[in-house]
Amino acid sequence: MTHFRAGAFGVCAAFLLALAGLAGWPRTWLVVRDAQGLRYAFVVQQQPRFSLAWTHSVEKENWVETFRIDHGSIALVSTRFKTFGAGVPDHAGHETRLENGWVVMDGIDRIVDPLAVQAAAAERYRMRYGGRWFALSRPGEAPILTFAVRRAPVIAMWRGMVGAWRAPDTGKP
Question: Who wins on pLDDT, 55 or 46?
Fold first, then answer.
């Protein structure tokens, strides 16, 4: 019986040591912060992309911008929208085309790290990462959100991981 307890203790100790090592292992993260601190944290996978969508305040149409995380930076790679308005360029990037009623501009490749967004509730800001849409806007004050790529251990990102895990899926943009 004593031999069994010593073996079980050894296995538990090895498991806890491995878990502690994993928690301290630095990874690359896409982090979303607001005035209260870390809101979301996502482990960056190979060839990661994320999108931001919102309803334009004047035109009342959805806009979607797609970003790529490349070499520790965020780059805007494409944008799509339905109508042109003041301040909207007639082309950007390497290709501009009309696709199912959307103006699509691809190949922009502009570094925007860190990226700051004021997520007003009226514009319904959303973020897509890993196949899920996350709400960014909240009723009331329009928070300024900062998106950045950071290298940190898992233990430092726990709050953002839990925030992403607990966030409801907002569905399609």
Answer: 55
